Amino acid sequence: MSSPSSQLLATHANCLPVGTRVADFEIIGLIGEGGFGIVYLARSLASNDIVALKTLRGELLRATLDHLSAAGRLDDWTGMPPVSGDLIR
Q1: Nearest CA-CA partner of 27 in 12, 13, 16
Q2: Architecture per CATH, 4-86
């Protein structure tokens, strides 16, 4: 039987699947979505803490890369790391 988190993730086409690793985190569920990003329930691989992890939406990231490419500054891109924070229940 699948968990509620995996069922929720399955309904959101833009979301990362459970088990995906992002930087030093592993996705374990979906918290919510907003205009700029998606917030996941994640586990820190370094500390094993459960955190909220915010990532940029794919279309926003693509637009940023397109803008940098058009400006000839794509080499300046160092990537945008996910932002993690304490999970408040």
Answers
A1: 16
A2: 2-Layer Sandwich (3.30)
